[in-house]
Amino acid sequence: MPKSLLIISRQAPWSGPSAREALDIVLAGGAFDLPIGLLFLDDGVFQLAPKQDAKALQQKDLSANLQALPMFGVEDLFVCGDSAAERGLAPDSLSLEDAQVLAAREITALIDRYDQVITL
Amino acid sequence: MSTLHVLSHSPFGDDRLSSCLRLIGANDALLLTGDAVYALQPGTAPFNALIAGNPTLFVLAEDAQARAMEVPDTAKAIDYPAFVELSIHYDKVNSWL
Q1: Which residue of A14, A25, B6, B14 pairs with B95 in a disulfide if CB–CB is 3.0 to 4.6 A?
Q2: By CA distance, what is B19's nearest residue in A?
Q3: Phi, psi at residue A44, to the nearest 5°?
């Protein structure tokens, strides 16, 4: 049984490479059939804001890649509900409908469940 | 399962510390390294949050010494060999990059 891996993505999408790199780790893990989870925390929840358009920034659309995660075998998607609420994002407005919304206490338990964790 | 959370960024103008304190578990511990030791500056908001959160707390001694940060009684100052031991003692290490 391969070790399970939780990626915690906590940076906003367009100001640096962190969000894209976290997603790349998740996709690579999914390609190798690792049990992998992805949690959006802090500014990372902005990756899930609806109606983003980074064309003017000449960057590739991250949202489209996020939507495709279940197709790549990554189905354990989580969002910190407190982070979303603090940033004025309603849970039902997030662009990742399949993601589970978790409270801080539930995130403690989530981290416990995984063998390894990477925070970017 | 237990987790060693490792912070290395200054808590001023950065929310890693507050976010970490919000989700750290009872079996977990927090290690301050690099600029994260500035959280030990008494009378500041990060320091108060750290005391209020009361996690099992370790501080990399040489980083605190270099920055003239006093390690409080509630924390344990450690060296690099002890850092390695801690990494092995806890089930996993979560470095807040």
Answers
A1: B6
A2: A42
A3: -60, -25
Q: Which ranges of chain A have pLDDT less than 70?
A: none
Phi, psi of B59 (to 5 degrees): -135, 135
Please check whether residue A79 lies inside any domain of the structure. Answer: yes
**Residue B13 pLDDT:** 80
For residue B81, give the CATH number of its domain.
Answer: 3.40.1260.10
Please give the pLDDT value at position B22: 94
Domain that holds residue B85: 3-95
Contacts of B19 in chain A (CB under 8 A): 10, 41-42, 83
Query: Residue A103 sits in a domain of what CATH number?
Result: 3.40.1260.10
CB A102 within 8 Å of CB A76: no
Distance (Å) from the alpha carbon of B11 to chain A's nearest alpha carbon: 14
